[in-house]
Amino acid sequence: MKIGIIGVGNIGKTIAQRLSAAGHHVKVANSRGPETIEADVLSSGARAVTVQDAATDVEALILSIPLNRIGDIASLVSSLPAETVVIDTSNYYPMRDGKIEELEQGKVESVWVSEHLGRPIVKAWNAIGTYSFAHKNKPEGHTDRIAIPVAADDDRDRKVGMALVEATGFTAFDAGAISESWRQQPGSPAYCTDLTRDEIPDALAAAEKTRLPKRRDLAAAAFQERLESGQTGPFGDYLVNLNRAIYR
Questions:
Q1: Exposed, middle or buried by CB within 10 Å (0-12, 13-18, 19+), for 205?
Q2: Using the 8-state DSSP alphabet, how is residue 178 labeled?
Q3: Which of 99, 110, 174, 248 has the most C-beta neighbours closer than 10 Å?
């Protein structure tokens, strides 16, 4: 596929590396310009381009930017051809994004993103931690392969999202409609807890929507305290264990 990726932080970088290694034609962009994209992002064949170029002549556009930056690219994304699959990896963290009243009142994050982009989206790669995503990919068939939930309203879009998740080395799990994607938001039992295909259905089903924000903020505060104490990463197993203790 011809794929554009906007955002090359930890998640976007790994997506670019894995999808280009899998044979897809990948273009990557950030807000600072193609000359600022690190060489390791391009190590498997991805090309650095402008944001406008990343969204031009692609079959799928992956947004890997903070949720509070969605508005910056809304006009670009809303003008894409209807057949272009738009995949969003973002999560709402009010300490980073600022408080968004609609989300504070319980609107599903992906519904909010879809409304602000003016088009349907796929939600994927939001419920995997950066360390696990970079280091715990496994070939298809491993019994302990981590599963990633994928939500979308359009069946074709969801299938594309699931195929691309599989190409990054994880098992794609059909998580249903965007309206149900709150079950993979921060604070939920399926969020960054490194579950297998057999474990993830129960975790999604066990999510309690009203409890997500408090659990999300509790985990974020514990992580922030660790940073302020002077401890440095990688935090892979620590974060997974922290999330499992708080979210499940």
A1: exposed
A2: G
A3: 110
* Burial letters 159-194, b for 16+ CB under 10 A, else e: bbbbebbbbbbbbbbebbebebbbbbbbbbbbbbbb
| Omega within 30 of 0 (cis) for the link into 234 | yes
pLDDT digits (tens, 9 = 90+) for 16-63: 999 999 999 999 999 999 999 999 999 999 999 999 999 999 999 999
Alpha-carbon torsion 49, 51, 53, 57, what sign?
Answer: positive
CA distance 16 to 36: 15
Structure tokens at 141: 């068939």
Q: In this predicted model, what pLDDT tens digit does every residue of 171-189 receive, in sequence order?
A: 999 999 999 999 999 999 9
Compute the distance between CA of residue 208 and CA of residue 69 in angstroms, rounded to an integer: 27
How far is CA 244 from its chain centroid?
19
Q: How far out from the chain centre does Cα 150 lie?
A: 10
Place of tokens 């080395």: 169
* Of 178, 161, 77, residue with least CA distance to 124: 161
* Residues contacting residue 31 through CB under 8 Å, at least 6 positions apart: 51, 69, 72
Per-residue pLDDT tens for 187-219? 999 999 999 999 999 999 999 999 999 999 999
Whole-structure pTM value: 0.96
Contact 55, 61 (CB under 8 A): yes
